[in-house]
Amino acid sequence: MTFMMKRLTKKLCFYFVLAILLVCLFNVLTSKNGDTEIDLKQYDEIFKTYYTYSNDSDLNGPKVSMDNSNLVRKLREKFLVKPIEENKGRRTRYNLIDMSLIDPSMGQAAEIAKIIDYTKGGFFIECGALDGETRSNTLYFERYYGWVGLLIEADPLNFVKMLKKGRRAYLSPTCLSVNPYPEIVSFLQRSNMGRIANDEVVEDEVISDDYGKKKSPIVNVQCFPFYTYLLALNITVIDYFSLDVEGSELNVLKTIPFDKINIRTLSVEFFHVKEGDDGVRTYLEDKGYIVTGKVTRQDRLANDYIFAKPSALTQNLSFYVT
């Protein structure tokens, strides 16, 4: 009798554990499906809100100056998502894929940290922000040292992901203009390799092979000059500007009125720039910047110059490798 009871107990325990596992599996599967539905719904909402343009022809084109008050208002009211607000004295937690990764950049953040005193906070702008986490050059400063800033990402597929990360920065579903005026451009949706379609750049051979076999999706995106963002945010000092837009970097830099603002440090990707790395370097050196470092990787996930104003340096010039 005792033996039969033991066998019965073991079976009941087995079925009980199996039932728990099945319930857990069901919850996982249904939650994933629910997330997918929410993603699709949110994408549709984001697209209708930020990527459907009408009655904007009078605020685009060469006749609209970058400091036009109506343009500044348009950007501020329609194309800036405010940072995550504090909730009952506690900030909303980050929702990152890898919470244990301290610095997701490919080395750019470490180079900037050599230049300025980053521990006291600062203001950043990151264009080509992707999803706000993957290879982010600014997340380290924001998450651990209280920096604030602006993340600009043109691709709606990436922007929807970025909205969920809990970043404590302004978010903008737009692109930096390659001209000193606002315009709507055709944007190639290529995940982390998206770019303005009509700008002449140097394509990576691997990219050309991969995307040459299929036509990249294209979406219309509103672009604003760099200076317009600063006016919309009432900012004149940028401690760190991260620029990675797959080949349009130099054209973007040429639109910036450096005499009106103070960009203390920059990381600029040069690999796809038509004029090459020397073109980027020469232009910013002529603006008074010095090269303090260069970040490159064999897998081409980083090909950046690090620039700084001499006044921003915390070490003697000889400390930096140029």
TrEMBL record:
<dbReference type="InterPro" id="IPR029063">
    <property type="entry name" value="SAM-dependent_MTases_sf"/>
</dbReference>
<feature type="domain" description="Methyltransferase FkbM">
    <location>
        <begin position="126"/>
        <end position="290"/>
    </location>
</feature>
<dbReference type="GO" id="GO:0016197">
    <property type="term" value="P:endosomal transport"/>
</dbReference>
<dbReference type="GO" id="GO:0005789">
    <property type="term" value="C:endoplasmic reticulum membrane"/>
</dbReference>
<protein>
    <submittedName>
        <fullName>ACYPI002776 protein</fullName>
    </submittedName>
</protein>
<dbReference type="InterPro" id="IPR053202">
    <property type="entry name" value="EGF_Rcpt_Signaling_Reg"/>
</dbReference>
<dbReference type="GO" id="GO:0005886">
    <property type="term" value="C:plasma membrane"/>
</dbReference>
<dbReference type="GO" id="GO:0031902">
    <property type="term" value="C:late endosome membrane"/>
</dbReference>
<dbReference type="Pfam" id="PF05050">
    <property type="entry name" value="Methyltransf_21"/>
</dbReference>
<dbReference type="GO" id="GO:0006888">
    <property type="term" value="P:endoplasmic reticulum to Golgi vesicle-mediated transport"/>
</dbReference>
<dbReference type="GO" id="GO:0005794">
    <property type="term" value="C:Golgi apparatus"/>
</dbReference>
<dbReference type="InterPro" id="IPR006342">
    <property type="entry name" value="FkbM_mtfrase"/>
</dbReference>
